[in-house]
Amino acid sequence: MKFKSREITDGVNVTPTHPLKELCILVGGIVGTLVAIFFVLGWIAGWLVAKIPAKYEEKLGRLYAYAFADSTHSKELDAAEAYLQDIVDRLAADLPEKRFPYRVSIHCSQQANAFAIPGGQIVILSELLKQVQSEQELAMVLGHEIGHHVNRDHLRGLGRSLAIMTVMMAIGVSEQSGMAQKVANYTGNLLLLRYSRSAEMAADNVGFQLVQYHYAKPHGALDLFKTFEKLVPKSATKFPAWGLTHPHPQARFQRLRERLTKSSASQHERKPLAAGIFANICESKADSDNK
User: Fold this and answer.
1) Has residue 21 been placed in a domain?
2) What is the pLDDT of residues 69-91, one digit of tens each?
3) Most exposed among 127, 129, 178, 267, judged by the fewest C-beta atoms under 10 Å?
4) What is the pTM of this model?
């Protein structure tokens, strides 16, 4: 047989597949791989969390506590922390299981927030204390953070964040394309947001249950979400629910309101806060910062 070479055409090195189709396949592969790896690592992290001994979690908590320790203390700040601690002790008294005692501290800040850190610690930012109007509302804040401890959300969040970082680092090393890194970053954020929203709703359930148990008239606890609604920028309410770290305050209010019985729903009395308990709690720190 005599060999006969074929004529080389102009499009010999051009793939017959449309570039957009190839891009979609690439992006879909990256997203699918990221989601699969994230859920596997997230499951492993969640499993490992249950195995962490309390003494190691307390050590981890002390590392975080240093970041929020205020160098200046005053009688007003100590009295306010003791007031909060009394509420926390009463809320947590009837929990079926406590790995360690819950401890609450105030961190002077112009942000209105609160969060749980490992080792049973709860940090309340001072600006939030200026916003709450009743003891039931304050108890809902503290009960919510106790709920995060009960569900161990703070540790699971750390594990899942490490999972996302691991996946993004792997993609960043293996792929030089900026597109791959952007897709990984965006997808990872959405996955963490979803975990965060579900954790917030579960913590709401625990917190509201504790408030219902310890207050004959718990309706004032729902005022917290009206307070949050005032603090949330109006622009944030335009985002869809899946794009936010927390459920919308109005959605949280409606969901918990349905749990109130008809008899308790009509009892709108609020237990007032101790008079002036949060006044001037951070003035000494502000004075020292200005010097």
Assistant:
1) no
2) 666 678 899 999 999 999 999 99
3) 178
4) 0.72
